[in-house]
Amino acid sequence: MSESASQEEPKPAQGDGKEDKERKEEAPEVKEPTESSQSEPGSFALDTLSNEAETTADEIKSQEIDLEEQTKTSICSIKDSNTRVSKNLVVRKPAKVIFNLDPTALNSKLEQPWKKNFFERLEARAQAMQQKIIDKDNLKKELEKKAKKKLPRDNLAKEWFNAENMTLNTRAYLLDKLLPTLVPGVEKMLMQVEKKNLWAEVDNTTKFNPINHLGEYLMRNNPYYIKDSGMSGYQRVMKDVTEALKIHIPNTTDNRISKIKESIKQKREQRQYITEVKVQVANTRMQALQEQFSEWILDPKGMIPLVVIQNVLHEFFQNPDFHLEACCKQLDIADSMEPRLNKMEFTEYISSHIADFKSEMFEKLLKHICHCADEFREVIKTDMRRQMFAELFLHCDRGKIGFLDRQRTLALLETFYDQSSKMLRSLLRNPRQWPFIEFEEIDLPEFWGDMDNQKHIYEDFDKVLLEMNALLSEKHASKTQSKLLETPEDQHKHDEHNESTLPEEQREMTSEQEPNRISTEEQEQDGESTGEKELYRESVTEQETHTGSTPEQGSSREPVAEQGSHRESVAEQGSHKGSIAEQGSHRRSVAEQGSHGESVAEQGSHKGSIAEQGSHRRSVAEQGSHKGSTAEQGSHKGSTAEQEPSREIIPEKQQDSTLQSERGSIFRESKISREATSYEYTEISPREEKTQEQIYEEELFVSPELQEEVPTSRRKDHLSETTKKKSQKDPSCEKSQEIEGKSWSGELLTCNWKMNCIKCEDEEQANLLLGNSRFTDLHSIIRNIQSYKEVKGRSAFTGVSLNLLQFVQLLETFVGEDAPLSVSETLTSFFKRGYVETKEEKISGLEQARQNASRARRELLLEAVFQKWDSDGSGFLDLKEVDELLYTYKEGMEKESMKKAKLHIQFPKPHPDQEVRLSLKQFQKYIELVVSELRGNEDHVLESVVEFLMNTLERSHIENLRNCARRKWLYQIQHAAETSGVSLEPVYTETFNALTQDAEIHGNKKISAHISLLEENLLLPDRGEVLLRNVACTLDDAPFVLNRVLYRDMKGISFTVVDEGTPIHVPQVQHHGNIFFWNQSLKKNDQNGSFLALPLQDAYMRIFGVMAVDTLRDPKKINIFVPHEIRFYQGVANVFSTAYHYVHSREHILHVVIMGTGWLCDITSDITTITTYFVEPGPTQDSDYVLRNMMVTGHLGLTEIHKNPPTIFRKTCIFRNFLFKCTDSSEVVLASVCGENHIIIPLRERTGKALGILDFNIGRSKMLLYREFKDLQKMMKVVQAACYEILGELSGEIKKNYVLEIENVGEVQRAGVLFFRIMLQELQESLRLLTSLDFVSLLLYDYNLPPEFTSPSDSKSQELEANTKLVHDILIGVILFIHPELELSGDFRNWEKCKLYVKSYLVENICEFDPTAKNVKVNLQLIGEHIRDHSRIEVWEFGNTVIEYLYQWAHICLALMELNKKPSSALAPPLPSKTNSCVYAKMPKGTVPGKC
Description:
Blueprint: H1 2-8, H2 10-31, H3 41-82, H4 103-110, H5 113-150, H6 168-195, H7 210-220, H8 233-248, H9 253-293, E1 304-305, H10 306-317, H11 325-328, E2 340-341, H12 343-353, H13 359-396, E3 404-405, H14 406-419, H15 422-427, H16 444-449, H17 461-483, H18 488-499, H19 502-511, H20 520-525, H21 529-532, H22 535-544, H23 550-555, H24 558-573, H25 580-587, H26 590-595, H27 600-607, H28 610-621, H29 630-649, H30 654-664, H31 672-675, E4 677-678, E5 682-683, H32 686-700, H33 704-709, H34 712-729, E6 738-739, E7 742-743, H35 753-756, H36 761-770, H37 779-787, E8 801-802, H38 804-815, H39 821-834, H40 839-869, E9 877-878, H41 879-886, H42 895-901, E10 917-918, H43 920-933, H44 938-952, H45 957-978, H46 985-1002, E11 1008-1016, E12 1026-1033, H47 1038-1041, E13 1045-1046, H48 1054-1060, E14 1064-1066, E15 1091-1097, E16 1103-1110, H49 1123-1163, E17 1169-1176, E18 1186-1193, E19 1199-1202, E20 1207-1208, H50 1218-1225, E21 1229-1233, E22 1236-1244, E23 1250-1257, H51 1266-1291, H52 1307-1328, H53 1332-1339, H54 1355-1378, H55 1382-1385, H56 1391-1394, H57 1402-1408, ...
Antiparallel strand pairs: 1-2, 3-8, 4-5, 6-7, 9-10, 11-12, 11-16, 12-13, 14-15, 15-16, 17-18, 17-23, 18-19, 18-20, 19-24, 21-22, 22-23
């Protein structure tokens, strides 16, 4: 067989050689051109390809057959060689098997070389044939072109074209089949007739039959047999006509193709047109954006930081009115200021994000960019000011201890405030009032009973508003008359008549500043009240924003009317904060007020035409950067001419208007940079800007006496006129690149303060310890502690000292955003001269800094030792084990001293097994007491003790790795709680992840786990007072365990764990007999495994639930929990308990805030929204903290709670960094952004750090009225006290204080009444400080009537009568709370008898009264009639402290009684989860005093 195989092998090779010779012989034949192929080129190609395919297939088949024969022979030879044992037994050698071999590699190995050569030849032959066909087609096209040139086209054939539907098919058929041959035949026949002269001769004997001649021609030229006989010019045109007619025949291929071509052509043209329009729009937008670039202040290289532009786009995309949230995902906001954009890059970057924007949206974006350009100037100005104050702090901190004395700083601020001129004081804020002083520093009578409006943070704030309201009342009649005019022409004439006299002009000015106290009915009846209702908030602000334009404000209504139109445009624009129209009232300079105003008649029509305002806004947006508009300047000039008469009237009435203009300038904003810029169009040269700055500085620091002599209107008149003329002369000038004469360096220096200037004692001490070789074994633990540290970067408010951030923020709050930088420079110089420390104070400060560093070092060392000792992560150490190890210190020489330390510490109660467990804080306190009993320096002794413990505690490498992994899992549980957005779902998830991962890695088990919490058994009390409800479990057990309930009368050991408070481990559940299996379908044979139940305890060691772990799903029959696993599970239970109460504490705080904001919104009207933020750690360990927008409360008190709170990063808040300023410093921040003023107040932890902030948006009002400002303080003081109490109870620092009976209902319900309970306690403490004389004056109030007040028609007598009714009603209402039996006697309507109840013990009864007690039964309706008939404003204006106390106390009691009547579920706020986007909550109505 081997021989035959060897003889047959060369045959395929010989065959291949012959075939190669044949191919070489056939190759030249392919290249030879064939003449006959011109007639039928297609058939030749097909025949050639078919022949090639057949030969190729035959060759492949023959080669495959040869290959199969070859393999058969080789296999036979292999069989023959391997079969060598015997004929009955066949033994084969194992074949070589290769696993996981790539099929492509295998095919490449099996491929034969001849195949490669064969396919190469075949490919070359196919390419040659294809090239030959292409050449033939090209040759044919060239011949056709030559023929067209030789034979001219005969357009006579076009007459055959007729698209008539009736004969269309016939004509097309004839033209296609017959006429191309018939017409030349007829032509030939006629030529023959002409040749034989048959036309002239009638009796011609020539035998010529034209029919026969034509038939012969047709037969000889039959197109089916004669190919390419040549075409005449007539036939060529006829062929084109035929093709054109075929297109019009319906339901044919040509017709369909023509339609498709036409459609494609139209679409192509449409696309081309759209592309051209897009290019044109893109170029227009690029030009507009390039013009916007000049609006920005640039760095020295002429560039803008990329992160600033990203913030601009981010704010625009986040606007809920535009629905562009998806665009925010494309923004990858930079983390630094390094990336910069020049003009082209600026344009291209913005264009890349707005390619799909419509024109309207692009216009809004242009307005937003222009507004942000102005805002960025303010950001840079603020950064310059803060850098100035930071350098001042470093100058005053000569000892480099990192903080300054707070009281000394406040004293210097008070001195500077007192020594300042009246003009300067109008810009500064009073440092003797909140927020400069804390709530605890204000006496209770002053805090709750002080109603002196002069103690406002702004001087004479309420006084100015009252004077303007008096003017508004005078204007109301004329305003009503103007509305009653029938036609617009009458209105126009009426406006012209009002322009003629100055007093009417002044009233017209004030008409645009109508307060928002107008009733709802008037707002519904009058559409123009949109602009008027803002004045009560905006009257002061409008004066501030127009510094230097008092003459125009006092004598001409045009600027104010323009403000009104801009306010009305706000309603049309929605909540678009970046609109240029909104900038009008806050960014308008002196020049704009003089030149931008229109004539009085035009304003009269503009006030009623919102559509015209909209078109005006659109025209402004279309101008790109809105500079140099000739038409607009023309209108400005025209309006200026119209204003001349009113200016001439000013001197005649100057004495009357001087007082109002001077008072109106008290709260104006001194924004030099804004004055230098005319609205959005014009700019004042730097030289002139410097002159204005010098002029205004002289006005700021002039003496009060001189200031009173020189009216404000005259001082600012020259400045306004000069700016007006400049703006009209140079309309195309750009904005200055300087801020008050100072250039921008290109960096925001205060952005990286936390990294460069703020010292963190923990990090510094950690770095020192990591560099100390004595504690090498603790280095890894210290690194983990620092990486797992909670929120970083927050400053703790101590009330004693100020660090850098707090000092800078305090001075910035004092100066305000509107004061020029010259004021900050003056304050800096004043501080450098006045802040002097004595030698003792310096030494005391250094000692305090040393103690802080020592305390941080001790805590870090002891925590590291504790974690090394507690290698299993249980969270506790055995006191006995600690003592045994400590007593060996110095070979037992310090044993007696250490025993003394136990006398000064109270250890926790021992467990049933007599084990006393120490937590981390207890361990730290115990070691510090031990160290204090030893001799020597405490720091040195502590380090020696820590070094001794570190060296004595020996842990293997495996134990250290296991400890590190478990610490990471425990940290993830706590981190999930801190970043959950007040939700328990992430906490449950991380808890089960920690349990399952530890069981798989360190225990080699598969476990199941569930958590059950105690609940009060209300449905089936016979089965036990409490029950255990399974609230969470592992995924596999959810169908059997989740939401199931365990009662006391059921099997199980969980209630034993609850009663005893110790873990219970059942090694084999099948032998226990008292185990309840949730999965009833489980067979008894499968009920094998171990079970562990652990108690869940709070800070007071109270049991609130059980965590159970079992191994029933593990395939091993016997798999018990070892001791180190049990200890770790105890640590998981401990951390879960901490995380659980952390989430619930935040939930309780939110509940308190809901109650507080609801109470505040019901008694105030100037607060637009209240937003609550919580501080959370960043997404990574080294990242900055973030803010979560938890809920937003509207002005009606309706709170929207976000179930998935949005996350706010610092890098996205360049224009709204006041949120992070408040969190960094833990101080109150007053800020203005987008024309709206904000009061940002921190919610502090017990350590003084901010856990959250409340952002009060007060709209365009400069500040709240003093009454509302005091109510805001009361609300915040109570909310902060509630936070302290909730957090103190959570940590176990304070014991729970149950004052009212309603607080015993439950923890969640208790949080709902905590706000009112603390406020009730505050009022009770204030009432105790009253004297009997305070009540006597009220009892004798109606007897002290002067004789001149007895007239019933006198307004003063009416006011006195109303006050008397107020006193009587409130006292009777309070008496009805204490003596409800008075109602039955009927004496409560007799004041002479009712006042007998006002005795010495009335205050004691009020202070001891519990409105939620079960035995209290009063008539709430009757009391409500006496109390709620009087408004909050009426009580405030009465101005009596006793009435203020009793009024607030009565409302709080009514609120608590109404809450007590509601079910307990009404007091529970909705717990955020991931199912819905948001929920709504609101405090019950009717529980607080009304607004009016």
